[in-house]
Design a protein that fits this description.
Helix content is 14%, strand content 24%. The chain has 155 residues and is an alpha+beta fold. It has 2 domains: 77 residues, OB fold (Dihydrolipoamide Acetyltransferase, E2P) (Beta Barrel); 66 residues, no CATH class.
Length: 155
């Protein structure tokens, strides 16, 4: 059987970009066939920064073609002073200082911390969910196991 159209690299057979694909500016995201014009139309990434596909959601009825395709993009950026971060429980913090590695405290083996947090920020502002999340993350880091948020839904 002869192919009507050669799909760009990183596309699934349905014409939608695959999850995990690396994108640059003008990389194809979606290819659709327009029945009225009997031609293919390609939708491109308009973002100027490199990114990757985080997720794809296709909406539409059963047996019908897709009505809407939502593509969630992930941009990997280095944090800069003033960036705000949030935990899963809505606890927010602002990056106030970036220190060179030589100025960081270290252990006998030379290990330095990734993050230093003001301990006075926790007691007055922390929720119970944040406390459980912090304990679970510390436990997972010590055991070398991934942190699975779903296992704490009972709390």
């Amino acid at each position: 059987m002869q192919k009507l159209f050669e799909l760009p690299q990183g596309m699934e057979s349905d014409g939608i970009i695959r999850v995990g694909a690396k994108l640059k500016k003008l990389s194809p995201l979606l290819v659709v066939y327009e029945v009225a014009k009997k031609s293919f139309k390609t939708f491109h990434n308009k973002e100027s920064e490199p990114c990757s596909v985080e997720g794809v959601i296709v909406t539409g009825g059963e047996g019908k073609s897709a009505e809407k395709v939502l593509v969630k993009l992930r941009f990997d950026r280095r944090p800069v002073i003033g960036d705000k971060f949030s935990s899963r429980h809505g606890q927010k913090g602002v990056l106030s200082m970036l220190w060179p590695k030589v100025d960081m405290p270290f252990t006998e083996t030379g290990m330095t911390p990734d993050v230093i947090i003001n301990p006075n920020a926790f007691p007055s502002r922390m929720t119970i969910g944040m406390l459980i999340e912090s304990m679970a993350a510390k436990s997972a880091a010590l055991d070398g196991q991934p942190f699975e948020y779903e296992s704490f839904e009972a709390y």
